[in-house]
Amino acid sequence: MMASPMVATSAHLQSTTTTGRIIFYSAPRGRRFAAAVRASGKTMATEKLGIRVERNPPESRLSELGVRQWPKWGCEKSKFPWTYSAKETCYLLQGKVKVYPDGTGGGEEDFVEIAAGDLVVFPKGMSCTWDVAEAVDKHYMFE
């Protein structure tokens, strides 16, 4: 098993390897939580509550995806519900957001925080609430 920067007791952490992924399961306060971590070159992608986040991907990765040619969208500090009718990949140029997927309970650990420099994938069909703490400017692509 490869070393992880995460610290947990064996009662709270179990890991398995499945096709290059390490999946962590824990149950704080009786709830099930799952996150996947995958190393891809120099960046690491994490998946939590169905949202995949790649922090500060290299420009070569962004170029490979054609991110700079994608449409742009932005919003000011706000809070609003959203449902993804298609899979969305986006790259945040600026901003900070807490995304609360519906059905997760809305507790302390039931959100994914995304910020400038993050490449994010939201699955088709996900309903959530965006809590925008800092104005967002992003490139996006629906599949």
From TrEMBL:
Highest taxon of the lineage: Eukaryota
InterPro entries found in the cross-reference section: UGlyAH_Cupin_dom
All copies of domain (S)-ureidoglycine aminohydrolase cupin, residue ranges: 62-140
Pfam family, one: Cupin_3
Name under which the protein is recorded: (S)-ureidoglycine aminohydrolase cupin domain-containing protein
Organism (species): Zizania palustris (Northern wild rice)
